[in-house]
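Let us work through a complete example step by step.
Step 1: write down the sequence.
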Amino acid sequence: MMPCYWNGICPYLQPAEPDMRAFERDDENINLTRQGPQPILSNPAPSRVLVLRKELTGYPNYGNPSGNADILYTRTQGIWTFNLPPLLALVLNNARRVELVIWGILDDHYNVPENRYSMTVDFNNNRQNFTQLPFVHGRPSGQRFTNWNELTVNIPPRAGRVNNRITIRNTSNAGENDWIAIDWMELRFIL
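Step 2: predict the structure and record it as tokens.
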């Protein structure tokens, strides 16, 4: 080993001074007697969740944090797939719940009321209509938006497959240049 010439300190060596080890032990044995409320803690069993994520990159400028997002104009649709390795078929058979989480936002056309935006989500031919979206108009205008929201779509557990097809259609009652952006999607299997 090379000798230390940096102010007598060897940053790659463990402290050899017994006083430092005693100090670390004292930290663990602090007497926690105090007046007032004590902490309220829990220690449940960890959740078992398998998450598959797609970061969408169709259009630059709006996504957060990547700067990219996919855009669905009024009366257009997009199709995405989540293909699982066959080994994960066991996960499909044992899932208690399946969720598709969509991180989305509305365009920055503030003159169009937000309640005019809607969409359908079709997951392996299980269609759900969303007439009230949790998405709001993007801010700041014309830049990378910072106010994205989640839409969680509950999927029947038996609808999940090794090859999953998601079709999202913008069914908004808005102009043809109005749009919904999707930054990312996650497919979550809760076991």
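Step 3: interpret the result. The first strand starts at residue 49 and ends at 55.
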